[in-house]
Design a protein that fits this description.
This protein has about 140 residues and is an all-alpha fold. Helices cover about 65% and strands about 0% of the residues. The chain has 7 helices and no strands.
Length: about 140
């Protein structure tokens, strides 16, 4: 799914949402995307605009967060949990889930750690540090 073409990636979100709204049969990745979108009603109006959503730029400097980045982080976390990579992430997730009792809220907590890891990697021009990311999530689970 992941590549360098921003519009192509965004189109996948739009297509999955439109198919879901139409009651069409979804592929597993489309079903995951549609579920994530359904958990974010604040994105529905933007996604319902269709093609107009493809070219929109989101400026953190103006207080805008990128919904496609946000949903992509949900997907990344779910893929990490499915493969337990980094090793131990699933156990930390389960521990945090026991405390919060809300899988979506747990993913949002984990996103803070993932976002920090991605930001540091970009700043340092390195690969994300899986160990630091895992430690961050484990600290959340321990609190």
């Amino acid at each position: 799914m992941f590549g360098q073409d921003r519009n192509q990636l965004r189109q996948m979100y739009l297509d999955a949402w439109q198919k879901s709204q139409a009651g069409a049969i979804l592929q597993p990745l489309e079903a995951m995307i549609a579920e994530i979108i359904s958990q974010h009603p604040e994105y529905h109006a933007m996604l319902n605009k269709g093609e107009d959503a493809l070219d929109k730029d989101f400026s953190p400097e103006q207080g805008e967060s990128n919904p496609f980045m946000h949903m992509g982080m949900h997907i990344a976390i779910r893929e990490q949990l499915g493969t337990d990579r980094p090793a131990g992430i699933s156990a930390a997730y389960k521990k945090l889930l026991l405390r919060l009792q809300d899988a979506h809220a747990v993913e949002h907590q984990m996103m803070e750690c993932l976002g920090q890891s991605l930001w540091e990697a970009q700043r340092n021009n390195t690969a994300p540090d899986e160990n630091q990311y895992l430690l961050c999530v484990q600290k959340l689970a321990a609190n």
